[in-house]
Write a structure and sequence with these properties.
A hairpin with a 7-residue loop joins strand 2 and strand 3. The chain is about 40% helix and about 15% strand. It is globular and about 70 Å long. Strands 1, 2, 3, 4, 5, 6 and 7 form a seven-stranded mixed beta sheet that branches. The protein has a domain of about 140 residues: Nucleotidyltransferase, domain 5, CATH 3.30.420. It has about 260 residues and is α/β, with parallel strands linked by helices. The relative contact order is 0.16. The protein has nine helices and seven strands.
Amino acid sequence: MAKPLLNDDLWALIQPLLPPPKPRRRDHPGRKPVGDREALTGILFVLKSGIPWEDLPQEMGCGCGMTCWRRLRDWQHAGVWLQLRDLLLAKLRGAGQLDWSRAVIDSATSRALGGVEGRGPNPTDRGRPGVKHHVITDARGTPLAGVITGANAADVTELVPLVDSIGPVAGKPGRPRRRPERVQGDRAYDSEPHREALRERGIEPVLARRYTAHGSGLGVFRWVAERTLSWLHGFRKLRLVTEKNEDMQYAFFTLALALICYRFL
């Protein structure tokens, strides 16, 4: 049998993070709103399948697509998806499932259709509009942080901001953790000023250098970030970006990162 889109364990983690529903009027209360679990099921279906909101099947009992869209927007503004990601990272750290010995950084580009905010011409796709998903993971491939830019943004410009956006990750007694021991990346991150910025943060930079022979051995470690990006673009709403608003792009992006973290639990 197919796995449920929203199982009981995942719902038990998300439900306490959701803001309480608005109280209904006593006189003329109107139609009963769609439940949060049903709306979230619809959101997950759109995220995974990539269908337009208006094509959400009514037979699923999730309400109309616009209802789910509004619920996703409101939960994004309430910071639910960032809280979920932080909660899952804390659980992983508490279980000893985060490997801070190194962090791996990489990016992948997606096509952008229509008037998508933040898009840029993709230099590897004949200048077609696109966005770039930047991700930094631990040594096992668990996403620690992510950011979205235009497809024409240089990877190296997001190196330090991504490192600084990690954590703090709780889950164990003492001070929360937010720094890996080293950061590894391919030739796109070759920059002496950025290496120095990592050293100032107490992080060892292990970044491939341009114009050197292949076979540095970094591929033995970097594949985990490539796998995570592959998982990320397995969510079809991220493989082909159609959300016009940048907030909604981040809503899907952060939710997808949290779902990948959940896979490691």
